[in-house]
Amino acid sequence: MFIDFLLDVFRESADQPALVWHTQQALYADLLTAYEKIARQLDAAGMPEHVVVSVEADFSCNSVVTLLALVERGCTIVPLTGSVEANKPEFRRIAEVEWSITITDQDAMEVKRTGVEASHAMILQLKELGHPGLVLFSSGSTGVPKAAVHDFSKLLEKFKTRRHSRRTIAFLLFDHIGGINTLLYTLSNGGCVITVGDRTPDAVCCAIATHRAEVLPTSPTFLNLLLISGAMDRHDMSSLKLVTYGTEVMPESTLSRFHRAVPGVELLQTYGLSEVGILRSKSRSSDSLWVKIGGEGFETRVVDSMLEIKAQSAMLGYLNAPSPFTADGWFKTGDGVEVDGEYFRILGRKSEIINVGGEKVYPADVESVLQQMEGVEDVTVNGEPNAITGMMVKARVKLSTEETISDFRRRMRQFCADKLPPYKIPQKVELVGNTMHGERFKKMRRE
Length: 447
Prior knowledge:
It is built from 13 helices and 26 strands. By secondary structure, the chain is α/β, with parallel strands linked by helices. Helix 1 (4-12) packs across helix 2 and helix 2 packs across helix 3 (61-72).
């Protein structure tokens, strides 16, 4: 019922490649067989319909068909990857998980009943409707992770319209709205999902070259890592046609450098949130940060320079936080924007703005300039209290050079003098040797 349109695609594309996992290729006919087998296993385990089920896995043949089988049973699914290993007990508790499914690296499946009985009003609402649900946890980079509850049937609606069939790298994680979107878009159009167990630059580029991937959905942080690593020079990237980037603000300098590195590849900025789903988008050009967002089922407006979205696919609410919607149903994204006609430029999160003596500083603006400096591999910018200005700009910098911090500060001030106003130039600098991004390849500005 809920996934009939997907199963129709599977049957139409039976002899076409659907998924590459551990270098092994599965056809759509194989997915159909695996789907039927998993459905029988769930029956044999005694799992009822409309229960809350955690699926602890990464992308694989069995994880994909398990997700679909649970949707068809009207279950509320809580995907959890190894990136949140330490948080899994707490996430299961918040989501009131009644059954758990673990899928191993060998694609074996273990099904257990937890003994919990869900009682949250939103979970009960989904059960009463007989609709499948989806619980996604935020990264928690700006606070405690929130559990967003979706009616999965609404998320599926946009995938019923057929679009381009593409060979796509499953880079964004299985428990991320972008990862779910990549999976459903690719399968609903008869494309091929190419999984990567190791999300290092060389491993991803090797997968692109080996399996002739056409699309790489990723983050600005990972694109910066690709440039630093030189991995694109060591692998055949000629099949790549489209790179989509989202999840965080793209520094203009990173976009410019990456565009020069892959001049024949289209670069498309995407925009989406765990709370509302992924909007359709169109960049003004491959080297522009201006993007048009919206599409069928979405409305946008700007209030006090902040973006708000109304979506048919919006979540029901949070399990562990108050509703973030306005009285008339708009979601406050917390993202500052500039507007030029139909196009937006995403500036950054309101929660990350640094107020220096009344002047607003978005970290990405400063990071973009510092990343142009020779020897700067990565940088994150945040605010720190200051007795005179209230806040000051602080930069943590990872260098490939051997210079001292005093030498770098001097060079930085000279470099920034004609590129940033004085209040945006970092007053405090810390040199670090570690990476400054999380498992989802987003900058972690909180120390």
